[in-house]
Amino acid sequence: MAKQRHFIEKLRDLFLNEFFILGLIIINALIIFIDEFDLGYKTIGYLEASMTMLFIIEIWIKISHWGFRKYFSSNWNRLDFILIVVSLPSLLILFDNGAIMETNILLSLRILRVFKTFRLIRFMPEVDSFMKSIKRALQASYIIVLGFFILLFITALISCSLYKEIAPEYFRNPVVSIYSVFQLFSIEGWYEIPNLIAERSNEATAFFAKFYFSALLLGGGILGLSLVNSIFVDAMVSDNTDELEEDVKRLTQKIHSLEKKIDQLLKKSDDT
């Protein structure tokens, strides 16, 4: 009984050790990486199922040790829990020798387990400051990002209406049109679309197409994306000045306090 209790304690300490879990995450990523080569080895499937079992044990031990409330208070733990739940179908290989693994599309969700690799970020220096910077940048730029996607949506619908008959490979429906306009905004092969339209239409339509897509490139690509990037980057690096601003504030307070003391001393000297 004592040996069993000692073993359970050792197992608990092992799964509460972040470096051990880090090792499991790296091994898990390597297994998924190898599996995508389609080598046909059933051993890979069993290894994937084994990794799922180990992560289930990790969740069980941490919930038992910390309790549900403390466990789910961590965003990392919530992410882990969701990823493991959606990868549970990979365990079917243990009972079906892989037959279901080849037919059930839900089992492809096991690939989402690779997102556990994001936990490596926790071991980066000053990761908390980095995450706060990203959060602040998202809060500062969400309005301009929303405006950009509204612009993308509107121009995609207009482009679809104008050119779905001339260039169906780019604008045959709104979904394809959104992708094509976004590609245009990213300044990736932007000239190919108007040139193709010019080849398939008359001179007036060709001239208008070149003018139209040049305006889209300027408004959405050069100005739009640049504005989004500048606001996001500015918000991310703004915390670099927080400490300096705090020092300036403290220095200003000390100067005011010193000025008051000097005024008091001068007033006393005048009275005497």
Automatic annotation (TrEMBL):
Main location: membrane
UniProt domain Ion transport: residue ranges: 18-239
Cytoplasm listed as a keyword: no
One of the GO biological process terms: calcium ion import across plasma membrane
Pfam families, sorted: Ion_trans
Any one GO cellular component localisation term in the record: voltage-gated calcium channel complex
Cited PANTHER family: VOLTAGE-DEPENDENT CALCIUM CHANNEL TYPE A SUBUNIT ALPHA-1
Record-given protein name: Ion transporter
Originating species: Aequorivita ciconiae
